Amino acid sequence: MTAIALEWTPIYDEKIEGYYLYRGERNGPLKRIAKIGDRYSSHYLDRGLQPGHLYRYRITSFKGGSESPPSQPVEVKTLPIPDSVPFISAIDHLPREVKLIWRPHPYLKIDRYILERREPKDREWQKIAEIKGRLNVEYIDRGLKDNRVYYYRLFAKSCDGLLSRPSKVIEASTKPRPSTVRGLTASRNLPRKIVVQWKRNPEEDIAYYKVYKSLFEIGPYVVEAKVQGTSYTDKIKEDGVRRYYKVTAVDRDGLESFKQYVPVVGETLPKPLHPLIIRHDFDGKRVELVWEPQDNRAVSYIVKKREIVGLFKYNDYIFKNIHSTRFVDTKLRPDAKYIYRVYAVDRYGLQSDPSNEITFSTKR
Asked: What fold is seen in the domain 185-267?
């Protein structure tokens, strides 16, 4: 492709010293390209030629300043640049990579391939790989971006450094991330837990969902759980606390969807409001407490009594499952001080803070 070897019958006559070699292209002028200073020489290698070009040669003999008439012209054409591989294809829609395969180049002097890539917005091609070996016909382009289109072309390179024409351009795309999880909700009325729910993603190869949680709306969000269903129960040992959640979908290839821009807010059920003792009466033998609820959640009440009988001595009593807003206590002793508090209990067993405190003495 880039060299032509010329041979002639040497002239052994002492009347000549050597030879001049001339070269031209088609109908262009001939120019001297070599001086061969030995009449016994019969071979010359003309290098650095253009592939696929027609060249004309003549040879003369010389001695001193005299030169013979030229020989008849000889026309020789260098071999053309070979085409690239006869077949190239891409296996795409893979997670962040594209696999390219091709047939080995038929020209035995090919010893490697040059692979180039560009994106639709690019004007220039970028060399991304040099694959050594004529029979090495696979390349996996890794580290790509999700849901992107890429173009590829391949050159074959000979052992003497010549590049083939480019192959046809192959278009390939990477696999997109799963779509953003939709329908995200979080409960705000359950005791000591928050239930987070969402809709199932439309992709068929979703492996699991990641639940992210934060104490604050702006984050940071950390992975709370990985679940295969479409709900998660976050058990929290506190009443009336708020948490923020985001959920992503992860497919079998490990591609993860983007998080929601706005989190969903969940809350554990707060304690019921404490009752308010509105009246208490003591007639010397018994005490009566009357209170009223401050919300409608209470299903029962608890009364706690502290009996103080000395400077550092006291007894505590608890009365549970009171289903009215009135309590009568007849178990009193003389010369004691009493403190009463009332607590509301809802249907989940959540207990309110204590009511206002009632204190009186049976001392006379």
From this structure: Immunoglobulin-like (2.60.40)
CB-based contact 136:162 (threshold 8 Å): no
Q: What digits encode the pLDDT tens for the residues 239-259? A: 999 999 999 999 999 999 999
pTM: 0.69
DSSP for 109-144 reads: TEEEEEEEEE-TT-SS-EEEEEEESTT--EEEEESP
| pLDDT tens by residue, 331-346 | 999 889 999 999 999 9
Instruction: Count Cβ atoms within 10 A of the Cβ of residue 27 and give its class: 0-12 exposed, 13-18 middle, 19 or more buried.
Output: exposed
Read off the pLDDT of each residue in 105-115 and give the average, rounded to a whole number. Answer: 93
Closest CA to 144 of 179, 115, 182, 173: 173
Counts of helices then strands in the chain (DSSP H, E): 0, 28
Residue type, 106: P
Span 88-173 CATH architecture: Sandwich (2.60)
* Domains of the chain, residue spans: 4-77, 88-173, 185-267, 276-361
Distance from C-alpha of 115 to C-alpha of 143, rounded to nearest angstrom: 16
Indicate the burial class of 241 (C-beta count within 10 angstroms; 0-12, 13-18, 19 or more): middle
Is the pLDDT score of 364 beyond 80?
Answer: no
Report the top-level CATH class of 4-77.
Answer: mainly beta
CATH class of domain segment(s) 276-361: mainly beta
Which residues are within 8 A (CB) of 20 and not within 5 positions of it... i.e. 6 or more apart? 32, 34, 35, 36, 59, 60, 61, 62, 67
Mean pLDDT of 287-310: 94
